[in-house]
Specification:
Membrane topology: Multi-pass membrane protein
Keywords: Membrane, Transmembrane, Transmembrane helix
Mean pLDDT: 94
Protein name: Membrane protein
Pfam families: MauE (PF07291)
Distance between the termini: 8 Å
Shape: globular
Number of domains: 1
Subcellular location: Membrane
Number of strands: 0
Structural class: mainly alpha
Low-confidence stretches: none
Radius of gyration: 15 Å
Length: 120
């Protein structure tokens, strides 16, 4: 079975994002809401999840399960977008309108991943 080329683009996006969790952890630690315990561990889990899911997207047997995993991950990290929007220190100097647009972008990313959940 051949996977569509755009699935590989999605995999590359998540692979690079996952690697970035380890290259620049401070960025991610700033945006984890303080009510979540152990931000360092959450950053590692999130980064590893993105890397593993990216690899699994490229394996036909696992691709639809990986797409579901990406949807779950995008939902799980959504509180960071709300936190960034509401917290001056977490904004990293970004204008509020950009942070506001990131929230519906999550829905676009979820929809993109959903396209591969039924791929057989």
């Amino acid at each position: 079975m051949t996977l569509p080329w755009h699935l590989y683009i999605m995999a590359l996006v998540y692979l690079l994002a996952g690697i970035n969790h380890f290259r620049s952890p401070r960025i991610y630690l700033k945006i984890i809401p303080p009510y979540f315990p152990n931000p360092k561990l959450l950053n590692v889990i999130s980064g590893l999840s993105e890397i593993i899911l990216a690899v699994l997207l490229c394996i036909p047997f696992f691709s639809k399960y990986a797409a579901w995993g990406i949807i779950a991950l995008l939902i799980a990290v959504f509180p960071t977008h709300v936190y960034m929007y509401n917290n001056e220190k977490a904004r990293m100097g970004l204008p509020k309108w950009i942070l506001f647009l990131r929230m519906p972008l999550q829905l676009v990313l979820i929809y993109w991943a959903f396209q591969y959940t039924f791929f057989q």
